[in-house]
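Q: Sequence in, structure out?
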Amino acid sequence: MSKKSIIWLIIIIIIVGILIWYGVSRKPAEEEVIKIGAILPLTGTAASQGESERKAIEMAVEKKNAQGGIDNRKIEVIFEDDATSNSPSKATEIIKKLIYIDKVQFIIGPVMSSEIEAVAPIANQENIVMIAFGAVTSPFSRFGRNVFTSSATFASENYKIDEFIGKQNFGKIALISVNTEAGLEIKKVLEEELPKYNSELISTELINLGVIDFKTNLLKAKEQNPDALYVFHIPALLGIIIKQAKELSIEFPILTFHNIEDPSAKTTGGDSLEGVIYTSPVRSEIGKKFFTDFEQEYGSEPNIFSDAAYDAVNLIFEAIERNGLEIDKIREYLENIKNYQGATGNISFDKNRDIKRDYIIKTIKNGQFVPYEE
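A: Exactly. Output:
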């Protein structure tokens, strides 16, 4: 073999070696992307809510990817639609698809409490970190160590309306609520807490998802002659309930929680929302900026849980940046979050894994959400 042939052979061997090394050491394309699953109500009665939450998540992802991603790895979110079905079986199918087919390690959502209850054991079993939002059941610790929330539970928000009820000497409260696990939680909390403020829950009307005529339920509540009516439902139907209450000449105060600030409640309730009294989280400067950026980006107001969805994905980003992709370390990091400055405010988890936030009493006056003045 000539000297020239030997040189070419050496060159070929080196090139082949480099190619083999590159092929073995280079991660597959799918591993170069950090995948996050999201379970949202993108169709059905809460579709506007889910769509707004999707946009909030995408806004956070686009911002992070524009900065180079995490350790030069891009973020990809795989969105799945639970169709506002409040179906544990459907949610279970979705999470299995995300974990076993899409190979995600992180999941945002779902929103419905019954769905969280159904998928939580799978997230824990497969060591997947899940950050839900929207659900108001507590304590969140019952869902297992791998399941977190970026929105406050009703138990942590309810104290403010209870205090208000006591100050206003509302001795009798009627409740109209969606018939979900969250609605049952609200009933339970009101029954337990109102007596501390010399008040009591005198009647409860639980209404299944999908029902849009609430007049019979409202008339039953009216017959009890309560001092105030507390209403809990998804935003669009919350507006409808209050509108129908005004059509029935219900004049006693209507109380609710911060879902009333959702644009879909305003659309369905219109001028009927005037005078409604509700609890609202104290907005941080980061939260105010989130709302401004969202409107500039999409030309519409975000719904009430969009900031919680935005925080959920950003909490995942921060946890990965500090701990890599080691799920056990990420879980421990999230468990110990204190004073995280998010769009929803100052986020800390208590011993029950519930988020604590500060609330104020607000009302709707001249179509505006303003602090309630005694």
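The chain has two domains: 29-154+284-358, 157-281+360-371.
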